[in-house]
């Protein structure tokens, strides 16, 4: 068994063990935390404290530590000694969000393992820390120096007698803790968040990243989603890659929408099926089975289905961009299914040019479709690592060798579901089609008119996780991924047959 395969299997074993054998508690203790602090600058220390603290007394606690102990002391250690609850998990998650790989490497943990466990790039998810704090940290990172000063001026204009102790403090997180203390914004464990005043000022900024964070904060503010820390991808204290039974709560718990589940009365499904390529990429045998399966599945629910074959990069993006013009907008839901080879962060067009996932998102998300539910399903590899092909199995990839937007609303109601996690290959049978598309179709056909979309996604992820196969005599496995989720409500398909 090769070193790569052993590493993958070990990684998967660690993931499946989950929090029952908490990685954090085995790699971090107070003495190690002191060594970690030695490698952190004051900015990183403040950011970590901002994400892990108890917000009821956060400002006073952290500001005193900040004033008295700026250099060569252990302010995180001092805090966790007085607030010991689950501190190891919180610190490890915060380090992951900070993307401090140097420190994580010293801890001897694979970042890919942590990336799966904590999903640091997904703003709307957290495992142990408060998800609003994660959003606000992402906001601090997105604002440049002049934008931070501008935001502070906006807020100070509304707060009389702003604490003079903060006059020369550049750390925006400390100002935010002060805003929490005086009630300007509210973060609480019972999810009664209040961001109205801050959101009013954030909407004045034109930067696309800030607007996306603003959208996430607005969802929490409006109660469109309820975030259960530690429970988004599974039950409490459970890794989202662990197996779940059908009786367990929904895999994606943040979507306890107050709105009723939307019923889909009309839908459009666009399938981009890339089978043939120029030189470097092999013919994707089995993809026709996927294409036919998807077509039959969505026709069952009364969707209009259009199959586009072997598109070059410019053709693909143009077709996606013109969906509203070519097919109209009088439908509740749009599924865009892209079947191709891929690379980390994108897919390959028939002319073997790379098409980023962001380019697909931007081509699809237009003002004409802002109120339409947009689901993108990607069957393609996302890297060169296989979760470890018999001759009948192959993979979708090579393993050998924000411009500003005019209106951020166009990115609403969007969901991207990937056949595999970032950095890994995706398995396809050369006759029957890919594991992922087979399960998407099976679950939708079986449960689509009984369960909501999110519950179907949960079943698909669980089913793929349990699949096993062999390639070149090696055991293989695959894990799906929710890449982006900005849906404003859950929905349910309606069978027309």
UniProtKB/TrEMBL annotation:
<dbReference type="GO" id="GO:0004197">
    <property type="term" value="F:cysteine-type endopeptidase activity"/>
</dbReference>
<dbReference type="InterPro" id="IPR056260">
    <property type="entry name" value="Dredd_2nd"/>
</dbReference>
<comment type="similarity">
    <text>Belongs to the peptidase C14A family.</text>
</comment>
<protein>
    <submittedName>
        <fullName>Caspase-8</fullName>
    </submittedName>
</protein>
<dbReference type="InterPro" id="IPR001309">
    <property type="entry name" value="Pept_C14_p20"/>
</dbReference>
<dbReference type="InterPro" id="IPR029030">
    <property type="entry name" value="Caspase-like_dom_sf"/>
</dbReference>
<dbReference type="InterPro" id="IPR002138">
    <property type="entry name" value="Pept_C14_p10"/>
</dbReference>
<dbReference type="Pfam" id="PF23725">
    <property type="entry name" value="Dredd_N"/>
</dbReference>
<dbReference type="InterPro" id="IPR011600">
    <property type="entry name" value="Pept_C14_caspase"/>
</dbReference>
<keyword id="KW-0732">Signal</keyword>
<dbReference type="InterPro" id="IPR015917">
    <property type="entry name" value="Pept_C14A"/>
</dbReference>
<dbReference type="InterPro" id="IPR056259">
    <property type="entry name" value="Dredd_N"/>
</dbReference>
<dbReference type="Pfam" id="PF00656">
    <property type="entry name" value="Peptidase_C14"/>
</dbReference>
<feature type="domain" description="Caspase family p20">
    <location>
        <begin position="265"/>
        <end position="385"/>
    </location>
</feature>
<dbReference type="Pfam" id="PF23724">
    <property type="entry name" value="Dredd_2nd"/>
</dbReference>
<feature type="signal peptide">
    <location>
        <begin position="1"/>
        <end position="20"/>
    </location>
</feature>
<dbReference type="GO" id="GO:0006508">
    <property type="term" value="P:proteolysis"/>
</dbReference>
<feature type="domain" description="Caspase family p10">
    <location>
        <begin position="412"/>
        <end position="466"/>
    </location>
</feature>
<dbReference type="InterPro" id="IPR052039">
    <property type="entry name" value="Caspase-related_regulators"/>
</dbReference>
